[in-house]
Design brief:
It is a single chain. The N terminus is likely disordered. The protein is globular. The protein has a domain of 145 residues: Glucose Permease (Domain IIA), CATH 2.70.70.10. It is of the alpha+beta class and 247 residues long. A hairpin with a 4-residue loop joins strand 5 and strand 6.
């Protein structure tokens, strides 16, 4: 029979202690698991949010481009047309004694407004007397229109003046004013005397109304369909000459 062991304690208490240590170590965090942020089963982890944008607009410094004044729009260009509606109308680039143009066409051909504007003067009666006063009545039947470009356009020697045309009445480019004729001092030749001048109302009479700048360059343009206004030339003439009563 073996001799009894003396001086040794049983080994099982040490085994129990080792088992307890191993069990405790299994309860620690497993590699790869973040216990600080992991969600509990059945819950949703909160999503980080950014501050909501303010609905109140914040003031910002205007850029130089935004602060600049809006571009100035140019006024609409005034339309101009040839004053006689006839394919065979002809004219000379010059005129005797003073700047004007005689436009030759058959009597009865339509005479139209050169541009949009208002009627200034109308003569429906032929007062010309070959032995009487020269000048004021030379035109016979006539119409003068103040264009929206500030220029007066005068046509005379008409056979008739269109109904309804009185001072102040609005007309548009191409609207018929009358017909080509030979009233007044027309030398019995059918034509339209056409004059361009400033609107020197109450001061000029015939001497300005008959024409102060050469119309031919503008007639050439209008016949080609080119919109050209004599406003600059007429304004310059008036600045230099004023409104003389006689030449």
């Amino acid at each position: 029979m073996p001799a009894p062991l003396t001086g040794r304690r049983p080994a099982y208490p040490l085994l129990l202690l080792l088992a307890a240590v191993l069990t405790a170590s299994c309860a620690t965090t497993r590699p790869g698991v973040d216990t600080g942020t992991a969600s509990r089963p059945g819950t949703i982890a909160p999503t980080p949010t950014t501050p909501a944008a303010s609905s109140t607009p914040t003031a910002t410094a205007a850029s130089p481009k935004a602060a600049a004044s809006p571009p100035q729009t140019r006024p609409a260009e005034v339309r101009h047309v040839f004053p006689v509606r006839a394919g065979d109308a002809s004219y000379h680039p010059t005129h005797s004694v003073y700047p004007a143009t005689d436009i030759f066409a058959d009597c009865g051909a339509p005479v139209v407004a050169v541009t949009d504007g208002s009627v200034l003067e109308v003569s429906r009666v032929d007062r010309f007397d070959p032995g009487g006063l020269r000048g004021p009545f030379n035109g016979g039947l006539s119409v003068a229109v103040l264009g929206d470009d500030g220029v007066r356009y005068y046509g005379s020697h008409l056979t008739e003046v269109a109904a309804g045309l009185d001072p102040g009445v609005r007309v548009v480019a191409g609207q018929q004013l009358g017909t080509v004729g030979r009233t007044g001092n027309a030398n019995n030749v059918c034509h339209l005397h056409f004059g361009i001048s400033p609107p020197c109302l109450g001061k000029d009479g015939w001497w300005i109304r008959r024409g102060v700048v050469w119309p031919a360059p503008y007639l050439d343009a209008w016949r080609r369909g080119v919109n050209r206004s004599p406003a600059v030339e007429v304004t310059d003439w008036q600045r230099r000459h004023g409104c003389p009563k006689e030449p």
